[in-house]
Write a structure and sequence with these properties.
mainly beta, Jelly Rolls, Methylamine Dehydrogenase, Chain H
């Protein structure tokens, strides 16, 4: 663009000086629906706001360990469609996965029962991300994306994704369904000690080794979305390790065998942060408090197998070949009248439906699922597939059961059947040799409804401006005592690149520009939570994201190529143009920086405010030392950033030709 400058009387070119500044406010139902809502709602009469659900509603997926094939499959719970199948470890490493546990953000963790490590004392676990939406297709050798419903790539836009674009091609390569397991070569043992560098499937995001915890049979998520992993090699208690829920790195550990003599055979973390774990033949339950590093073995005088929790904070434990179920309070005291007998034999997986606190138990030896009232009254026996193992509840309140010998999963509608007490309404075959074996939180209903009592809303906003330095997020909400609203942000120049960037958790109304939250796209994760025992919900009324105000920049006024000479302490000049939104007279002294992104320098000269282009708004000319601005030879982009009074950020860029 050509500008005529008053006083200087010359024409200059700002080749692509682009106006910046983007913002977006979310406050209506339609706004909130632009993102992914988990365990929150904007239901009438409380429209145009987000609050916690009265009963837990996790993501609409269930993840099932196909132990016989060494894979995990993910199904959509409304239709039963298998969305993908994923290896549970790199080639050359042991598998036999079990204990699929979904975290607060839809990722699934799973342990490998056959992995003991070269030392006999190191297990493994895997984390598989989730992706919603996108266009299926293939990538040609040229890099071009071609839509194809049978392709192994997904192209944005995504409604939600935690998968990592490891090769930076802007796409996510991932399994398209049952039987489509992508290779994990582990060439040269690159991932044997942890890592996913050779995994072709970009939904596989963590492979963690668990020292001291071989033969993993316990995987549970805590309130902070970190993961407890317990070893149980040779059906003997081992150690527990807590790993970082983002990276899989070990954070802490304790030796359950030496200290308590039990634990490591399934379990969960309750709403008070207590870790519960069964122990099969030790005839005891482990109750461990990570906050105080104290615990106890609760003797039950019988086998301890599947563990579940109801919405009142009670713990339910199936007793395997004793053919009973035991109910305990949060302190570990067995309720009077318990244990009660099952209708059949081989009680394994246990789950409670949040709406009614009924308890559902898979009876492996009898091909049945028992339904109990909270007081221990048997309500119904429901016939299922051969040798049922695990049970889980989906977001619609339906119960899923995995059947080991028939290699399928079934869904039970609790209100179906002639008596209205439940019947199978869907069967999904998993293919030969699947042998699904699961005893944990396959849907995430315990994580979001019991462990954390939280919900989340994720939304991605496109500024259409590359490398944008985002500035501020504000929100309006209500946080009764014991509740909280937290917001995390991350940015990247591609949608697929967002998940490779950690979230930065921000303070309401505080600017965070200059902290590394840079990119065309910004993802905002808002979490509403409450403490144990609190019944009120936090409420989000409105959230706004703000980027720098619109500004326009011209580098090297008077030179059509915006040429800058490098190699000597020459001065490069740049004009920042004022506008109705940008009053250059309110620029805060000392806030001005110019140069290549991330290496900007302060000015060595500053002119007075003058309306160079005669548009009625004053502009300002700055001078900068070329050797201080991080510019390199060639054609590129340079930035000018500044702050106005009132915590308002201004940002502008222009093309620049740098010569030696």
């Amino acid at each position: 663009m050509i500008r005529a400058f008053a006083g200087a009387c010359l024409a200059v070119a700002a080749l692509t000086a682009t106006a910046l500044g983007q913002s977006r406010t979310y406050t209506t139902d339609a706004d909130f629906d632009l993102g992914t809502i988990v365990n929150l709602n904007h239901n009438p009469p409380f429209n145009n706001q987000l609050q916690l659900n009265p009963t837990a509603e996790p993501f609409p997926f269930i993840s099932v360990a196909c132990s016989g094939r060494g894979t995990i499959v993910r199904l959509e719970t409304n239709t039963g469609q298998v969305l993908g199948e994923y290896l549970s470890s790199p080639d050359g490493m042991a598998r036999n996965p079990s204990r699929t546990t979904v975290d607060l953000y839809g990722n699934v963790w799973c342990g490998n029962r056959d992995e003991n490590g070269a030392d006999g004392m190191t297990g493994s676990a895997i984390k598989i991300g989730i992706i919603i939406g996108g266009v299926r297709g293939n990538k040609l050798p040229s890099g071009e994306f071609v839509p194809d419903l049978n392709g192994e790539y997904l192209q944005p836009p995504f409604a939600y994704s935690t998968c990592v674009d490891r090769d930076g091609d802007g796409l996510i390569r991932t399994s398209k369904g049952l039987g489509n397991t992508l290779a994990w070569s582990n060439a040269g043992g690159a991932d044997s000690n942890g890592g996913v560098s050779t995994a072709e499937d970009e939904a596989i995001i963590v492979y963690a080794r668990t020292p001291g915890a071989p033969g993993v049979r316990h995987v549970s998520v805590d309130r902070d979305n970190n993961v407890w992993i317990g070893g149980f090699r040779d059906y003997v208690p081992r150690s527990f390790v807590k790993v970082n829920g983002d990276t899989g790195t070990v954070m802490t550990s304790f030796n359950a065998a030496a200290r308590f003599g039990c634990g490591g055979y399934g379990g969960f973390v309750d709403r008070n942060g207590i870790l519960w774990s069964a122990s099969l033949n030790q005839f005891a339950l482990l109750r461990y408090d990570p906050a105080t590093d104290t615990g106890a073995a609760i003797g039950l005088g019988r086998q301890t197998y599947g563990l579940g929790a109801d919405s009142d904070g009670n713990v339910w434990n199936s007793n395997w070949e004793w053919n009973t179920v035991t109910k305990l309070d949060a302190a570990g005291v067995v309720y009077p009248g318990f244990p009660v007998g099952l209708s059949a034999s081989g009680g394994r997986g246990v789950v409670s439906t949040p709406l009614d606190n009924n308890v559902w138990i898979a009876c492996s030896h009898s091909n049945l699922v028992d339904r109990f009232a909270s007081d221990g009254t048997l309500l119904k026996q429901i016939g299922v597939g051969a040798h049922p193992t695990g049970v889980a509840v989906d977001r619609a309140g339906k119960v899923w059961v995995t059947n080991y010998n028939s290699s399928d999963v079934m869904r039970i509608d609790p209100a179906a059947g002639p008596d209205g007490l439940g019947a199978v309404d869907l069967v999904v075959p998993l293919g030969g040799n699947a042998y699904p074996y699961n005893y944990s939180d396959m849907t995430g209903v315990i994580a979001v409804g019991i462990t954390s009592q939280q919900g989340s809303w994720d939304v991605v906003f496109d500024s259409q401006v590359p490398a944008l330095d985002w500035g501020k997020v504000t929100w309006d909400g209500a946080t009764p005592a014991g509740t909280a609203i937290t917001v995390g942000v991350r940015a990247a120049d591609t949608v697929a690149g967002l998940t490779g960037v950690p979230f930065t958790f921000i303070t309401k109304d505080d600017p965070f520009n200059g902290t590394g939250v840079n990119g065309r796209y910004i993802e905002l994760r808002t979490t509403l939570s409450r403490e144990a025992g609190v019944t009120e919900t936090p409420v989000l009324y409105e959230l706004s994201v703000q980027a720098p105000l619109d500004a326009e920049l011209d580098i090297s006024p008077g030179l059509s190529a915006n040429k800058v000479v490098l190699g000597k302490p020459y001065t490069v000049y740049a004009v920042l143009f004022g506008s109705a939104q940008v009053d250059v007279r309110s620029i805060i002294p000392g806030s001005v920086r110019f140069g290549a992104s991330g290496t900007e320098a302060a000015p060595v000269r500053q002119g007075i405010a003058i309306d160079f282009d005669r548009d009625g708004f004053e502009d300002v000319l700055y001078g900068f030392r070329t050797t201080q601005c991080g510019l390199t030879t060639g054609t590129g982009i340079a930035w000018l950033r500044a702050s106005l009074t009132g915590d308002i950020r201004v940002q502008a860029w222009d093309n620049v030709l740098v010569v030696p």
